[in-house]
Write a structure and sequence with these properties.
Blueprint (H helix, E strand, L loop, with lengths): L6 E10 L4 E4 L7 E4 L2 H22 L12 E7 L1
Antiparallel strand pairs: 1-2, 1-4, 2-3
């Protein structure tokens, strides 16, 4: 029997860094990734969010920091 996936959606910030984009997710403290262009940065963000959530859900802990300004997008991932 396959485990039911839950869809999570997070606001994601893409900051230009001269060589591409640095990506952070305000509600996931410590999550930082990057990509050479916006498309790659989105894919890296999806992967990083999935890994983060799998670790957090395994440990059953979760915190929510303050939101900051910048380019924001919603990223959906299934875990």
């Amino acid at each position: 029997m396959r485990k039911k996936e839950i869809i999570y959606q997070y606001e994601t910030i893409f900051d230009p860094n001269g060589a591409g984009y640095t990506v952070t997710v305000p509600k996931l403290p410590g999550l930082v990734t990057e990509g050479n262009n916006l498309k790659e940065a989105r894919e890296m963000a999806k992967d990083a969010i999935c890994c983060y959530l799998e670790a957090v859900l395994k440990d059953e802990i979760f915190t929510f920091p303050k939101i900051r300004n910048g380019h924001k997008e919603k990223i959906k991932v299934a875990v």
